Amino acid sequence: MRWMRAAGRGLLVLAVIMTGYVVSGARADEGGGAGRGPLTLATAGDLTGYLGPLLEGWNRTHPGERVTLVELPDSADETHAQMTTDLRGGDRSRFDVLNIDVNWTSEFAAAGWIRPLPRDRFPLDSFLPPVVGTATYDGRLYAVPYVTNAGLLLYRKDVLAKEGVPPPRTWAELEHDAKTIAPKYGLGGYAGQFLPYEGLTVNAAEAVYSAGGSILGDEGARVTVDSAAAREGIGFLARGVREGWIPRQALSYKEEESKRAFQDGRLLFLRNWPYAYVSASAPGSAVAGKIGAVPLPGPDGPGTSVLGGSDLAVNTHARHPDSAARLIAYLTGERVQREVLTRGALPPVRAALYADPELVRRFPYLPTLRAAVLAAAPRPKSPHYDQVSLVVQAVVHDALTGHQTPEAAVRRLARELAAVSHR
């Protein structure tokens, strides 16, 4: 998921940016002091191809604290599996700094794999407020937000302009346009990320949240999904597949597949992360100059996105924890955060950048994205998040494929999540 996309995807691209910025008043050539030395940094695969050269910036200015990048698969699920396998090795772990999906923080902290961090070492007050919550567990800071994200509705503004209609604000408007307008132009109506992987958990959570529901409460201790709102949200998606305005091909889409379908001119509407807007607007795209972005719709107005992105955490067994914290502070500094956006098309966590006139001209979706992030909700927090997500994926996919009614799927979700929560 491109979040990290989601992202991710939601996931997860770690950017180490080439600037001469030095944190905490330290000299750029420092290294070798207490808690300082070389590091390894683990992240999902670098999908943009810019990470390697940029890493040289830190290494050039911090020769005693050189960072070796370890790229794991670009799938969030596979990255999670490889990270957790490594972390279970305790002091034999190869990773010092981890770029983790925002929803893994609780799991990793509860397992004792990542260490608490001092709040006063990082500029948390300068971040968009919701992102800080993704880095906490049981009232303590266990990571530092690095990239944020929120889902947006991308649409073909040229097609809607010809029809004289605005972009949809509600599910009813989205459904109507996907049913009636898309076929006139040979387009599929609407797609998200509906393959059973982390992206489906995100899409399902957004549907439930937008309808006013929730999945878990009290950091996973309480199951709250058995509600009319959850039935409405999952029912909306299932009806779309059943009636055809969500193409059946979308049941195999992750972030990249759905982006390509939209970018190649095969969809009227797409739910995806902002990176898809940037890619679809680039030269060579079949829809360049023809797309817009608005908040995700809900039953009666704007819906609720899942808060995506990634956090930076320090392995409990990191060899050089002070260098690890220095690297994290560097990556979350304003200069580097600007580069995260301009070079990586990834949403930064620094609030001031969303009001920068130059950046808004270059990335016109920024005001919409800021509003979406501020209104976003996290995925259900749980120390067993990987199992929670697998349950959601499996059950919701059965509802989308027609193997189970939305009502039965919600009841099953409640039962299976309760079993996970009480382990």
Question: Any overview of this molecule?
Answer:
Keywords: Signal, Transport. This is ABC transporter substrate-binding protein. It comes from Streptomyces tropicalis. It is a single chain. The protein is α/β, with parallel strands linked by helices and 423 residues long. It has 2 domains: 39-149 and 307-370, 3-Layer(aba) Sandwich (D-Maltodextrin-Binding Protein, domain 2); 152-295, D-Maltodextrin-Binding Protein, domain 2 (3-Layer(aba) Sandwich), CATH 3.40.190.10. Helix content is 39%, strand content 14%. The chain has 16 helices and 13 strands. The protein has helices at 51-61, 76-87, 105-110, 129-133, 157-163, 171-180, 198-210, 228-243, 255-263, 274-281, 321-331, 334-344, 357-362, 366-375, 385-400, 406-421; strands at residues 39-44, 67-72, 97-101, 136-137, 140-141, 144-150, 152-156, 188-191, 216-217, 222-223, 267-272, 291-295, 307-314. The chain has a 5-stranded mixed beta sheet. Strand 1, helix 1 (51-61) and strand 2 (67-72) form a beta-alpha-beta unit. Mean pLDDT is 89; it is low at 1-33.
